[in-house]
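quick one, 351 residues, struct below
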Amino acid sequence: MQTLLLNADDVDENARMDRVIDGVRGAFTAYERGNAKMPAKSYIDLPEYNGDFRSMPAYLDVRTEDTAEDDGWDAAGIKWVNVHTDNPADHDLPTVMGTMIYSDPETAFPLAILDGTTLTMKRTGAAAAVATDELAVPDATSLGIVGAGVQSYTQLEAISAVRDIEEVVVSDLDEERVADFINAFGDRFDVRAGSVTEAGHCDVLSTVTPVEDPIVGLDDVGGHTHINAMGADAAGKHELADDLLLDATVVIDDHEQCTHSGEINVPYAAGALTDDDIYGEIGEIVVGNRPGRTGAGFGSDSDGPDAAVDGVTVFDSTGLAIQDVAAARVVYEQANANDNGYPFDLLGLAE
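---
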């Protein structure tokens, strides 16, 4: 039995976005139902190198009594990722790199070693798509993006898989990055550069910046805009102004991670935003325990507190290890079926 080595191109080729979205939706479902094990993300700080390592292990089981045998699956893995700020200037390396080990839960055999950086981009876009599907207006046709870096590409790729996006407004201080984004998608969408306010008045807005001073305020968004706040991944990062967060219906992916390093971490630490201001976790909405925009959850026909959400919605996404495992499974299964990647005898078990 061999381990499959999948580089960035292999991951990109085999991460079919529709399947990754389904996988991430399954991960949220398993987590909400208590069928996932996900220890807290651990950090190794290396100030001498102006960087850190982060380990993200997880196991999830989407099998239920109602699941057909061919549709049920479980999966396990761990992502080892870094943030080394000086890499681009001093070593000609990316700031963030990731490696994913995808394992057979029954035997622990390492089925695949994957590029975790591309995998992260795909599952991050998929998480935004799941939230958009639950929280955006059903007839959304416009998408605003603040920040035209690498994450912006999978935001459009994934969100356009769950809504019929026609118009895209991208805002970034770097005109070259905006031009590159427009060139990449201009043949498929009506893409143009715009201000933060123009992007924010689209039906859906994704923010993918690393800022610590909020750049999107309450007046910058429409009355029913759904916002995917994807940029904050460390304490101190903060893209959306406090008044916007307090006015919106806030949905998070995980309480511990979001209050520590997600979009809400700064106002939460200051006491300006509390647990009472958090509507719930995305998994609750996915499984129907809490209504989304269309009122698919329990009590959705009422006008009381269990009615469908309205107005501005915010999804605070920190990225969960269960998403990486679900996406890795999709990539491995697809690559294995297509004879992609590089099989090798990692454990020296070949006869």
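The two ends are 10 Å apart (CA to CA).
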